[in-house]
Amino acid sequence: xxxxxxxxxxxxxxxxxxxxxxxxxxxxxxxxxxxxxxxxxxxxxxxxxxxxxxxxxxxxxxxxxxxxxxxxxxxxxxxxxxxxxxxxxxxxxxxxxxxxxxxxxxxxxxxxxxxxxxxxxxxxxxxxxxxxxxxxxx
Length: 138
Known about the structure:
Order of helices and strands: HEEHEEEEEEH
Oligomer: single chain
CATH superfamily of the domain at 9-104: Phosphoribosyl-AMP cyclohydrolase
Largest sheet: 4 strands, mixed
CATH architecture of the domain at 9-104: Roll
Number of strands: 8
CATH class of the domain at 9-104: Alpha Beta
Strand order of the largest sheet: 2-1-6-5
Structural class: alpha+beta
CATH topology of the domain at 9-104: Ubiquitin-like (UB roll)
Radius of gyration: 16 Å
């Protein structure tokens, strides 16, 4: 596992200028260093600026309409190890070091803890790794 990736605000602005944000957002995938996908979310330009300048994942919540740092409440931060861009410059793939037991706010290691069965039903295939009610008390 490599060191945390971060860059200057000036270099980040250069990176941002080369990306295609649809309606101000770009989809991002966060995976661990073993390649397991932890989550998919969105970033706006400011969330990407914060992510690349701090080395900690920041996302844009479409529901709350604001930037949030992963782990800001739980302490389960994601440290950026590598960033890749797709062929059309319209999505990003982050390799991260996930701190704590999981990335999913529902208490699982990954947000992809269910699979779709031929019957059309969803089946949980992962076990909870933390209690979200304890972690996300209000």
